[in-house]
Design a protein that fits this description.
heterodimer; A: alpha/beta; Rossmann fold; six-stranded mixed β-sheet; B: two-stranded antiparallel ribbon
């Protein structure tokens, strides 16, 4: 009797509070940004978060006159955690957009969660082929690339340079296999050996001894994160730098260069972006990032910066009417914003059609770390290899 | 597959084994004498690498950085034992695992807070870099030879301390029968602190030697810790001889497996099958070895309590 009244009262208060909640939501643009903020890979998330903050400040923290509120989430490199974080952002903070995600396996868990809830997902790094092909969705956009594009570009470089045989090394997991497959799609020469090492392995001396014994014309590797730093150091120390030209994807970047310094000199990589890409948006991004954070920005950051600008272009096109999903999607498809990579367009599967460049690590200004510079364009307006499997027009 | 390559891979295995031994010696002593499962041993490896890097940059001298790094890790080890681990000796292993796991998380975050999450730049001093032509056709990095030499020297030093000094006698007695040693009036607390600090310093030595060739970043200790646990299980807990034997065996098996398993498989299987099976099998090899050793000698190869 007393309990019943108390219970009814409590439920009544709760109902009133819940009803009052969403009413205020329409005044802001809410973005949920998921990346990795803990553990050794948290350094990548740091660059992405910094770039998001920089983009928001460049926009005056407003999109089409509405305040922007961003919530950051940590996926801890785990798909189930990423999915949980996304669900919390969708239900609790009721975000309008979810953006970010470094890892393909996390993306494959998070993207369907977001699109099934009817919200737009803006990926700013991972580009698994499933989302470019069969599982494409009109609510999914990416400001990065499709995973296979980068090794395809590098394979073409080595093919065009007339390198007759290549020694291939990568870690033994899904992305490692993908990189090698992408490489083999455009490189038609002889693969001397395909060596898969343990994920997280730190000592490559045994594999380097084998490599030297095989005497290839060139070496292609994919070693992201700490693995790349270890590998590069040991490659350099073993005296192999001068002996075998080293080509790689996602192994040397502005995050790892300060840790390896001169061991990275002469390294070739292919990328869609580089800090020295000459367009006004990029020059502003790079110089402001360096001024504010004291470091050279990296491609993870450039993609995240572009992600925020992409969202802004959509919000402006519908004049802040966030309920108009169709309008926002149509606006995003136009890629009508000043991207750090210059002008680009979107393919039917909402992956960019863009250029890929050959980068080389060269000595920086005196007393500073080496920098990566564009040598030439490898692909112009490159389309990924999976868009035909996507049903969208 | 020529003789020079096999010799080179043997040296690689020896170098990996020696690094593992430095870590395993400390861990096995702590486990054997103090009956303490210390998962945070990998954190001392990390702390040693970070402190040595920091002091080298601060003082500009590699040797000074090494000495200060070792002293710093010893101090950290003693502090951890005093503050966090004293209460754990009487508790059961699961409690110790939980507590030391918490220490791992603590140290990883501490290091990330002080030095940031990005990997640190470390370098080998000029007088230690470069290669040595051991045989015609066999060029080996000088730094790795130095690691082998230092590791073997430490092994010799440990043998001397354990076999020929009073402290070593107490350590051996403590590994056999802790209660009796305490009952005979030895300051068991001080012994524990010394052993723990020494073990931490050994791990720090492994870390600072490995730092310049591997990567110095938060969480670097956990990966090698797994291999070290395999080493002490194979070698026998509480025995330094076991740690040396186990470390050399694991180092050799792992290195030679990675190098030669796939080509060996390719002679009996198709190239595609060898391609798929080789790397997977090579990474499992040390665990298969551990299972095999445990099946025949459950106490390890050289158990301390005989």
């Amino acid at each position: 009797m007393m309990d019943k009244t108390l219970r009814t009262l409590t439920m009544g208060i709760a109902a009133v509070l819940l009803a009052a909640g969403p009413a205020a939501a329409q005044q802001k643009v809410k973005i949920g940004f998921i990346t990795t903020l803990s553990g050794p890979q948290g350094v990548i998330g740091e660059y992405m978060k910094n770039s998001v903050e920089l983009a928001l400040d460049h926009l005056g923290r407003k999109m089409a006159g509405l305040d922007v509120e961003v919530t950051y989430g940590d996926d801890q490199v785990k798909p189930d955690v990423g999915k949980q974080v996304a669900e919390e952002m969708l239900k609790k903070q009721q975000v309008d957009f979810v953006a970010g995600i470094i890892w393909s396996n996390v993306m494959l868990a998070v993207a369907p969660t977001v699109t099934d809830a009817g919200k737009i997902m803006v990926g700013t790094n991972a580009g698994p082929h499933e989302l470019a092909g069969k599982q494409c969705s009109e609510l999914f956009f990416t400001t990065s690339w499709q995973n296979d594009d980068t090794p395809e570009a590098l394979g073409k470089v080595m093919q065009d340079q007339g390198i007759t045989d290549v020694y291939v090394m990568a870690p033994n997991y899904a992305a490692g296999k993908d990189m090698v497959n992408g490489f083999k799609r455009s490189y038609k020469g002889r693969i001397v050996d395909e060596v898969y090492t343990r994920l997280g392995q730190t000592d490559y001396q045994a594999e380097l001894s084998q490599l030297r014994a095989k005497n290839p014309k060139a070496v292609f590797v994919f070693y992201p994160g700490g693995m790349g730093i270890s590998f590069l150091r040991q490659y350099s120390e073993a005296g192999l730098r001068g002996q075998f030209p080293l080509y790689s994807v996602y192994t040397v970047d502005e995050i790892s260069i300060p840790a390896v310094k001169h061991a990275a000199l002469g390294q070739y990589e292919t990328r869609y972006w580089s800090p020295d890409l000459k367009n006004p948006a990029n020059q502003k991004y790079v110089s402001d990032y360096r001024k504010r954070y004291g470091k050279m920005p990296v491609f993870y950051g450039a993609q995240s910066y572009d992600g925020i600008l992409l969202i802004d272009s959509a919000v402006r096109a519908v004049k802040g009417n966030l309920a108009d999903k169709k309008g926002m999607i149509a606006a995003m498809r136009k890629a009508d914003f000043a991207s750090t990579r210059g002008k680009f367009s979107y393919n039917t599967n909402h992956f960019p059609i863009q250029n890929f460049y050959l980068l080389k690590t060269v000595a920086g200004p005196a007393g500073q770390d080496p920098v990566m510079e564009i040598q030439k364009t490898v692909f112009t307006n490159h389309k990924d290899s999976y868009y035909k499997e996507c049903g969208m027009k | 597959m020529n003789f020079v390559l096999v010799l080179e891979q043997t040296l690689n295995g020896l170098q990996l084994g020696v690094t593992l031994f430095l870590m395993a010696a400390g861990l096995t002593l702590v486990f054997g004498i103090m009956n303490l499962v210390n998962l945070a041993h990998g954190s001392f490896y990390m702390v040693g690498a970070y402190l040595a890097t920091y002091f080298t940059q601060l003082t500009g001298s590699y040797l000074l950085g090494v000495v200060l790094g070792l002293a710093g890790t010893l101090a950290v080890g003693v502090a951890v034992e005093f503050v966090a681990l004293r209460t754990l000796y009487e508790r059961e292993h699961l409690d110790q695992v939980l507590a030391t796991f918490g220490l791992i998380l603590f140290f990883n975050e501490l290091v990330a807070m002080v030095w940031g999450r990005a990997a640190l730049y470390t370098s080998i001093p000029d007088y230690l870099s470069g290669h040595v032509d051991l045989l015609p056709g066999l060029r080996y990095p000088l730094y790795r030879l130095v690691i082998i030499a230092v590791g073997l020297a430490v092994a010799g030093l440990l043998w001397f301390v354990v076999a020929r000094t009073r402290l070593g006698m107490l350590i051996r007695a403590g590994a056999s029968n802790r209660a009796m040693v305490s009952a005979l009036g030895v300051n068991i607390r001080l012994l524990y602190t010394i052993v723990f600090g020494f073990g931490a310093a050994l791990a720090g030595l492994a870390g600072l030697m490995a730092g310049p060739i591997y990567v110095v970043q938060p969480g670097m200790g956990e990966l090698i810790l797994i291999e070290v646990l395999v080493v002490i299980v194979i070698g026998g807990i509480g025995s330094i001889r076991g740690a040396l034997a186990g470390a050399l065996i694991v180092g050799m098996v792992d290195t030679l497996g990675r190098a030669f398993l796939k080509p060996a498989l390719a002679t009996v299987l198709s190239p595609a099958a060898a391609q798929a099976a080789g790397p997977a099998l090579a990474s499992m090899l040390i665990y298969l070895l551990m299972a095999a050793v445990l099946a025949f000698k459950p106490q390890g190869l050289f158990p301390a309590r005989l």
